[in-house]
Amino acid sequence: MSELFVVGVSGGKPVTLLRGRDVSSPRWQSDGRTLDYLATAADGSIQLFARDATGREHALTHAAGDVVDYAWRPGADEFAYAANDVPADAAVLRDYGGTKKAALLAAMVFTAQARARGRRQDR
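Structure (tokenized):
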């Protein structure tokens, strides 16, 4: 487990924003008030979340697999994310050459999807 803190650059006591879940890749949105991060969701997968200035957390993704990276489009209310979702045609890739390597590659195919912030679902 890990924790997520915020602290002013001039010092002071760190404020705990998240405790008891794995968390990584914290990044401020361009508004400077919303913090995005990857964290463990209720189903055990890693998803992208946002925490606003009031402390309210919003799930931004609901990918079938773990989200591994994300980026906001500059000046827009859209982001793209990469997740290790297994594509529907993974069986075809698995059968290609009959190797474990082909199956591993199929499992690691990244999907990217842009989604508007307005479609967030509260958690």
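Residues 92-123 have pLDDT under 50 and may be disordered. Residues 2-122 form one domain.
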